[in-house]
Fold:
Amino acid sequence: MQKIKSLMARQGLKSPQDGVGELSPIENLRLPSKEELRELREQPIDPQAQQEIINSIEDVYFSTDSFDIVKYEMEKLPPILNLQDLEAYRDKLKQQQAAMRKLRPREVKWKIWALQLITSRVSKKVADLILEKQPAYVKELERVTSLQTGLQLATVMCTNGRRHLNIAKEGFTQASLGLLANQRKRQLLVGLLKSLRTIKTLQRTDVRLSEMLEEEDYPGAIQLCLECQQAASTFRHYSCISELDSKLQDTLEQIEEQLDVALSKICKNFDVAHYTKVQQAYRLLGKTQTAMDQLHMHFTQAIHNTVFQVVLGYVELCAGNTDTKFQKLQYKDLCTHVTTDSYIPCLADLCKALWEVMLSYYRTMEWHEAHDNEDTTRVAEGSGTADSEESNFDRNYVKKKLEHGLSRIWQDVQLKVKTYLFGTDMSTFKYDDFIFVLDIISRLMQVGEEFCGSKSEVLQESIRKQSINYFKNYHRTRLDELRMFLENETWELCPVKSSFSILQLHEFKFMEQSRSPSVSPSKQPATAAAAATTLFEQYSSGGNPFEIQANSKDEESEDVLASNGYESDEPEKSAYQDYDSDSDVPEELKRDYVDEQTGDIPVKSVSRETLRSRKKSDYSLNKVNAPILTNTTLNVIRLVGKYMQMMSMLKPIAFDVVHFLSQLFDYYLYAIYTFFGRNDSLESTGLGLSSSRLRTTLNRIQESLIDLEVCIDPTGSLTAGEERKEKVPSPHLSHLVVLTSGDTLYGLAERVVATESLVFLAEQFEFLQPHLDAVMPAVKKPFLQQFYSQTVSTASELRKPIYWIVAGKAIDYEQMLLMMASVKWDVKEIMSQHNVYVDTLLKEFEQFNRRLTEVSRRVRIPLPVSNILWEHCIRLANRTIVEGYANVKKCSNEGRALMQLDFQQFLMKLEKLTDIRPIPDKEFVETYIKAYYLTENDMERWIKEHREYSSKQLTNLVNVCLGSHINKKARQKLLAAIDDIDRPKR
Structure:
C-alpha cells in the first residue's frame, strides 16, 4: 500500500492532503463526451439491471460533503492484495461508472439543481434568523448610540465647567465669595424654616382627620392623609417624622375600617350623597374592586340579619319575653315559632325589609350607570381626559359584578322567604289570610322579575306545595259544606236583582282590578303611562309595595239583592228551613254555618222575615226577568270566585284548581239529578229522555266523586270510609221539601228553582271559560275542554227527566185509559159527537194550566221550562191515547173515524191552552189510526218502518184488522214480522 502511495507521488498525483478531497463528488463528476454518449445510446439498456447497478453505488458518492475519493478507495483495500479481487472490484466500478454515464444529462442537471435548492434553503434559514434578531440588534444599537451621546454631552459639560471655574478663579475676589456664602446660608435657613412649618402642620393633622371623619368626609380625609404621607416621606430623615409616618398609616387603616362601616349602611337605606363620598374615597385608595366585593358581602349579610331580626321580634313578642334562647336559634328553627296570628304581619314586614335591601341595590346600580354615562359624555365632548386602561377595567369589573349580584341577592331573598313559608303549616288558615299570603308572594315574585328577570322558581315551587296542601284541605271542607247545604236546602229563590252579575260579588272583584288587594290605592298609577313603570321606579321616592291595606270588603256592600220587600235590617239567618214553621228545626241549622277551621261564612243568607215577606208580597219579583238561583248556588259561585282568585295568583296550581272547580259543579249536578231527576221508570218508556252523554257524565261523577259506601250516624259525622279523602257521600234531599203533593204539582216550584239554578250555574261557568282557559297549561287544556263539552253543556239536559216526573203525575193518564176502555168502537154509523174521555182529558190539562199559573206566582217559570212541561204532558197524553186505541178488541171503520174525531177535538181545544207548535207526537197518533186502513203489503212495510210503536200496539193493530181486510194467513205473516222486529230487543 505504501508503495502505491509513493508511486503516485513520483507520478505527480496529489495526495489527499493536497486538497483533492476538498471537491464534492458532483464537482469531480466529468460529463461524458459525444463519442461516449453515442456509444451509450447504441448499447441496449436493461432498465431493471441498470437501476440495480445504480442502487449498489455507495451513498457517500452522492454526498455534498467534501472528501477525497482516492483516499477513500485506498483505505478500503485489504492489507494483502489479490490481483483477481482487484480486477473484479475494478470491473464493478467500471459498471457503476458506465451506468452513471448512461443517465440522461437532464437527470444529472436535476440532481445538481436539487443540491442548489438545498443550499438556497439553508441560506434562507440563515437570513430568517438574522431578521428575527434585527429588533434586538436595533434596540441595542440605539442604546449604545444614546450612551455615546450622553458621554459626549458630559464631556461638553465638564469642559464648560472647567472653563467657568477658571474664569471665576481669575475674576472673583474674597468679598464676592463671602456674599455668596451668606446667600447660601440664607437659603438653607429659609428651607429649614419651611420644613419646620411643614412638620408643625403634620403634627396637627391627626386632629383635622378626626374632624373630617366625624363629618363623614371620607374623600377629604383620605386625600389629606395621603398628602401627609407624601410629605412625611420627604422629611423622613427627622426622627419625629418617622413616628408620624407610622401614625398616619394607622390612621389610614382606621379610615378604611370606618369606610367599610359606611359602605354597609348603603344596604338598607341608600343615600346618593353618602354613597358618592364612599365611592370617591375608595377610588382615592385605589380599591374600587375591593369595595364592590365588600359591598356584595354586606348585602348578603344585610339580608340574613334583616330577616332574622324581623322574625325574632315577632317570636319574642308572641312569647311575651326576650329570652336569649330565641336569639341562639337558627333562622330555620326560629321560623317554626311564629304563631298563626302573627304569621301574616311578620311575612309583610319581612318582605318590606327585603324590599328595602333590593331597592338599595337597585339604586346602587342606577348610581353607577349614571356616573359611567357622565364619564362617557365628558370624554365625548372633550371636556375630560380619556380614562386610563385601569379605570376602564375597574368600571367593567364593577358593572359585571353588579349584574352578577342581581341573581345572587334575589336567590338569597327567595331562600329566606322559602324557609319562612315552610316554617308554618298553613292548611288551617282562613281563606282570606291564605289569599293575602299568595298576594304578598305574588307581589314578591313580580319584584324578582323586575329586579333580575327571574321566574322565581324557588318561590313558585314552595308556594305551590303550600297551596296544594292548603287547597286540598280547603276543597275537602268546602265539599262537605256543600253537601250540608244541599241536604238543608229547601230550594227557595234567592232574591237577586234582574241585573245581577257574578262580577258584582266580592269574590270576582279581582277580575276587574289590575292592582293587587294588598297595595294601597294611593300608590296605584293614575295613568296608563304610569302603570308601565316598574315597582322600583314607582316606589323609588318612598313607600313600599308590601304595605298592608285594610280590607275594604266590610266597607263596601254587594248591591245584588232585590229591593222590593226582600231586604231586612235584621241579622241574617240561614235560608235552609221552612219559613212559616221552623220550631222543629235544630237551632244549629237556624244559624249561619261557620267553618270551624277557616271561620268563613260561605253564604250571604237571606233572613227568615225577608223570605216570609216574599210569600206575603205574592212574589212580585217574578214579574221581572231575575235569575233563578238559590243560596247554595250563590255559595258555589262564591267558591268559584275564591278558587279563581287563588288560581290567578298562583298559575302553577291552575290545573289542580280547575279540577276542584269541576268537582264543585259535578257534585251540584249530581245532587240535582239525585233529588229531582232519578226515576227508573223513565228508561222503560223508551223515550230516551236521559241522553247517552248525560248518563255517561252521571256515571263518571258517581264513580270518581261519590262515596256510596260511607255511613253517617245520627249526629251527622262520618263513621266509615273517612280515609277516602277524594270522595264525598251522596247528598240526601231535605225532609222539608215535599215532592208528592199534587196541589204543588209535585214540588214543581222546588224543581224549577233547583234545575234552573243549575242551568244558571252552567251559564256562569261558560262565561268564565275564557278566563280559565287563559291560565290553564297548554298540556292540560284538553281536560278543560272535555269538562265543558261533556259536563257543563249537559246541565240543561236535566230538564227533561226532572220535568217528565211532574208531567207523568200531573195528569191522571190511568183514568183516561179506563174511560177509553169503556168506549164502544165497533159502531156501525159515523158519530158526530166525540167521547167523554176527551173532555175529561182536557179538564185535566186545564187544571194543570191553573196549577202551573199558581206555581208561577211563587217562582218564575222560564219559557223553556214551560214548553218542556207542556211538551211532556202532551206527549204522554198522545201516547196514552195510542195505548188506549191499542187496547181495543173490536173496531169498525166507523170506530176508526170516531177515533179521528176524538183526537181532532182534543187537538183543537188543546191548541187554545198552549202555544206549542207543532203539537208533540201528533203524527204518532194520526199515523197509528190511519194504519188501520192499510192493505196487507202496505201494512207489512209500515210495521218495519215504524219501530216507535211497541209490539203490543202493533199486534193489536193486526188483530183488529183481522176479518175486515186481512185474512188469517196475512195475520200470521204480519205477526211474524212484528216478532222479528222485537227479537233484537229481547
User: Anything to note?
Assistant: Residues 2-132 form one domain. The beta strands are 706-707, 728-729.
